[in-house]
Amino acid sequence: MIALGCTSMTPHSYPDSPRRPEMVNVLRGAFDAGVELFDTSEIQGPFTGEQMLGDALGNHGTIATKFGWEIDGTTPTGRLNSRPEVIRASAHGSLQRLQREHLDYYLQHRVDPDVPIEDVAGTVAELIEAGDVAAFGLCEASPETIRRAHAVCPVSVVQSEYSLWTRDPEEEVLDVCREIGAKFMAYSPLGKGFFAGSATPNADSSSPRLHPENFQANQALSDALGQLADELGRTRANLALGWVLAQGEDIIPVAGSTNLERIKENNAATPLSAEECTRVDEVLAEHPVQGQRYTDKHLSFIEQY
């Protein structure tokens, strides 16, 4: 399964945006083409990403949405806030915006160090008991936090960045997910477009790997993978997604796009063979990645382990 990440659609999802109707049609087209899982969050917009999905899908398909960033009215403060009363209000707002009977997957967007994870899990457990939420999840959480949360409320899904150049979850998180029976959602499986060949140098990117000083060095990796993709009869994006899919049937890549044909192509990706994965790993070994995966600011919101 390939999930559709809807972040790139969100800047165009404001009510007066001329592209909003287009994105609604793309979402409906993706669902009709077989996309089953859509990934969003209340912070996208804020709120307009969920509203767009609600208008596009209503109660159809499966949606993963998230809470945990503080929003003052409609303005993000840049701080985390997972206090129980905030979670409850966020859940009810998401239900209304998404036009759904319940939230399929409800994930804490980032772990809030000021709120015990047991309080977070307990609050979501209450929402599950009330029928407002079907399943609980965590994003960018450490193995210890995942286990502590799961002891209070079953963790059904864990989402973290995972791709050809971000393999941190292999250290322990994937094992913990398999230990507790949780699915793993791999966001940015295409490295913010880098492994699809669509990224360009961007000094303002949240990923230093795309900053001009690192982009040129990383281009050698992109070129080598592109050559391998040609040899294997795959596109670059198909190669990157196929590698992620090959790491386990319990791993769901979350690939974003605003182009329906590209979404269909991504959804048709198949796992690489063991031999193909070995060849990819050989290319990665020959071309070490330059730059950390996030800027220091963004890394400060991710649990280190």
Per DSSP, the total helix count is 11
Walk across the major sheet and give the strand order.
1-2-3-6-7-8-9-10
How many separate structural domains? 1
The main pleated sheet reads as:
8 strands, parallel, barrel
Number of strands: 10
Mean pLDDT across all amino acids: 96
Structural class: alpha/beta
**Fourth-tier CATH superfamily name:** NADP-dependent oxidoreductase domain
Shape estimate: globular
H and E string: EHEHEEEHEHEHEHEHHEHHH
Computed Rg = 19 Å
Overall helicity: 40-55%
Q: Are there runs of 5+ residues with pLDDT below 50, and where?
A: none
CATH architecture: Alpha-Beta Barrel
Q: Approximately how much beta-strand content do the residues carry?
A: 15-25%
Assign the CATH class. Alpha Beta
CATH topology: TIM Barrel
Structure description:
This protein is of the alpha/beta class. The protein has a single domain (3-300), classed as TIM Barrel. It is built from eleven helices and ten strands. Strands 1-2-3-6-7-8-9-10 form an eight-stranded parallel beta barrel, surrounded by six helices. Helix 1 (20-32) links the parallel strand 1 (3-5) and strand 2 (37-39). It is globular and about 55 Å long. 46% of the residues are buried.
Characterize this entry briefly:
InterPro entries: Aldo-Keto_reductase, NAD(P)_OxRdtase_dom_sf, NADP_OxRdtase_dom. With 305 residues, the protein is an alpha/beta fold.
Protein topology:
Layout: E1 3-5, H1 20-32, E2 37-39, H2 48-57, E3 62-67, E4 69-72, E5 75-80, H3 84-98, E6 103-108, H4 117-129, E7 133-139, H5 143-152, E8 155-161, H6 173-180, E9 183-187, H7 212-232, H8 236-246, E10 251-256, H9 260-267, H10 274-286, H11 296-299
Parallel strand pairs: 1-2, 1-10, 2-3, 3-6, 6-7, 7-8, 8-9, 9-10
Antiparallel strand pairs: 4-5
